[in-house]
């Protein structure tokens, strides 16, 4: 199996390449900063300097391109960032798809976002309305536009395109910012943690290795379409903090809650219905508690407490 991966130095991309190499796949890593790719990962790894907008290098008989490279603005509410989002995330993705198809690539996997779903009751399925106007609208609209265009491109070029709509991904190698790593570091060091919004912010948290497993399954055999990549359930910020506290051996009394009210509108994002991925791609994600324990087991308690 031969793969090409864009966004190779990112949190998910690096994990994906590592897993693919461990399976004996050949991987071409396309990275803006090639020196940041771990060259010692295996003999099956080829590294190419590439940025979105550049022509794809010759990929040979590549079975699948997995496109993770994207532009995420520092200020997600700044309308002036919309043009750049569409330039990179939509037009750039279309260019990658067109050039992959012209090189005879068999499959294309696009990493999208499950935050495109409109607010609503119950878990969101792939058929739920997508209308991202509540947060990060310019970024999310560019990602959704890329989905539509690439799915159409794939059909016209006989290259199956699979879209993975990712929930909130966590695990080893992730950036220091974000809810989960902050919880891990704070509670792991025995410090008090204050949670806002009454601890009721809710989000589907998915372990990175589950996303990677699903992506490789899609690259191997998916015939196109949209698939949710979440845990299948939502966790509130308070629930997540309590699970992290248990994992690091911290007292739950370190967790304090501020703000929020019983009549406040729910904050956060919907849980994902992952039954389609489970039925068609053998997807079996871990719960947040199971994922946290898997992360701790892999890194050891000391490194886990630092978010390594």
TrEMBL record:
Task: Give the Gene3D superfamilies listed for this entry.
Answer: NAD(P)-binding Rossmann-like Domain
Q: Which protein are we looking at?
A: Nucleoside-diphosphate sugar epimerase
Source organism, top-level taxon: Bacteria
Q: Which residues form the NAD-dependent epimerase/dehydratase domain?
A: 4-230
- Organism listed in the record: Rhizobium meliloti (Ensifer meliloti)
Tell me the organism's taxonomic lineage: Bacteria, Pseudomonadati, Pseudomonadota, Alphaproteobacteria, Hyphomicrobiales
Q: Which InterPro entries match?
A: Epimerase_deHydtase, Lipid_A_modif_metabolic_enz, NAD(P)-bd_dom_sf
């Amino acid at each position: 199996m031969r793969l090409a991966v864009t966004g190779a130095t990112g949190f998910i991309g690096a994990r994906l390449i590592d897993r693919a190499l461990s399976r004996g796949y050949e991987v071409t890593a396309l990275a803006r900063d090639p020196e940041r790719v771990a060259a010692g990962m295996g003999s099956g790894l080829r590294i190419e300097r590439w940025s979105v907008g550049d022509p794809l290098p010759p990929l040979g008989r590549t079975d699948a391109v997995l496109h993770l490279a994207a532009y995420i603005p520092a200020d997600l509410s700044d309308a002036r960032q919309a043009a750049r989002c569409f330039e990179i995330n939509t037009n750039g993705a279309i260019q990658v798809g067109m050039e992959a198809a012209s090189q005879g690539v068999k499959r294309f996997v696009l990493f999208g976002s499950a935050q495109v779903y409109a607010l609503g009751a119950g878990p969101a399925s792939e058929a739920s309305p997508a209308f991202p106007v509540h947060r990060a609208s310019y970024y999310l609209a560019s990602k959704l536009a890329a989905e539509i265009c690439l799915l159409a491109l794939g059909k016209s070029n006989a290259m199956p395109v699979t879209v993975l709509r990712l929930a909130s991904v966590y695990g080893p190698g992730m950036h220091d910012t974000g809810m989960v790593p902050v919880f891990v570091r704070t509670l792991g060091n025995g410090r008090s943690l204050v949670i806002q919004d009454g601890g009721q912010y809710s989000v589907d948290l998915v372990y990175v290795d589950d996303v990677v497993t699903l992506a490789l399954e899609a690259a191997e055999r998916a015939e196109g379409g949209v698939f949710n990549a979440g845990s299948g359930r939502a966790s509130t910020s308070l629930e997540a903090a309590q699970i992290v506290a248990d994992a690091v051996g911290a007292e739950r009394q370190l967790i304090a809650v501020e703000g929020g009210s019983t009549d406040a509108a729910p904050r956060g994002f919907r849980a994902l219905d992952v039954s389609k991925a489970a039925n068609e791609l053998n997807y079996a994600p871990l719960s947040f508690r199971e994922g946290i324990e898997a992360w701790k087991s892999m890194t050891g308690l000391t490194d886990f407490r630092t978010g390594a």
